Fold this sequence. Notes:
CATH topology: 434 Repressor (Amino-terminal Domain)
Number of helices: 5
Shape: globular
Largest sheet: none
Oligomer: single chain
Number of domains: 1
Helix content: 55-70%
CATH class: Mainly Alpha
Distance between the termini: 23 Å
Amino acid sequence: MSxxxxxxxxxxxxxxxxIESYRVKSGKSYxxxxxxxxxxxxxxxxxxxxxxxxxxxxxxxxxxxxxxxxPELLNF
Length: 76
C-alpha cells in the first residue's frame, strides 16, 4: 500500500470498500470492470485500496458501470 495519506483517508477507505463490494456483487473481476470503466486494472485497485483520490468524472464512470447514481455510490 502507498504511504500517501489524504486528508479524507477514512472516507476514501470506505468509498473503496463500497466500490469493491458492488464490483464483486456484479461478478466483475478487476480486469473486466477496469476495461468497462476505461481504466487500467492497477488504477482500479488503487481506488479500491484508497491509494488515490479520484476525480468526480472517474467516479461517475464507475457509478455508471455499476448502474448506480453518484449519490448511491457515495452513500455508505
